[in-house]
Amino acid sequence: MPENSNDFVTTSRAAKLLGVSQRTIHYWLESGVINAWKTAGGHCRIPMSTINQVLNKRQEELMAIDGPVLTLLLVEDEAELREVTGAVIQHWQLPIRLLLAENGYEGLILAGLHKPDIILTDLMMPTMDGFQMIRALRNASDLNAPRIVVMTALEPARVAALGGVPDDVRVLYKPVPFDALQAIIRERLLDDRRGRYLLRQRTGPATTG
Fold it and tell me: pTM score > 0.85 for this model?
């Protein structure tokens, strides 16, 4: 029996600390990736020193990767609103790269070049509007299925009358509800392991409410 039981954790606790499933912990134990001590009853107890080694290695790997985690493309024809929205997003200091476009045509070009994770777009724009851009994006097979979020001053009935947007596209009505927008971005970051780590390091425990 170890001298200090506080220096050891259960497989369930280890899974929570490392952000993986308990099944993954058992696989690591079986394959020798991590070591454990067994109680008289056959229950595994993992040294905290091992947990810290894994966490430190993960942090070193993350810090070795330069640049932001996610790319967000903002498509808005009104210069003032584009600048204000961009400034608010950057003020959150989240690990994202922000790209700006003035209309759907520019948005498509930037989307093709940079493969954004999130596209935030207005609907009524010159040259190519948001409806047209969204349809074009959905027909493009090489964009890694970005999360599309619409921000518009149109009433829901008007959006529907103009052709509507796909069911999985989130619609935010102007003035832009920045709390809701930040929650969407944080949710996308939480879907990414490195994003989840950096989000916790920069802003504390993340919530989407």
Answer: no
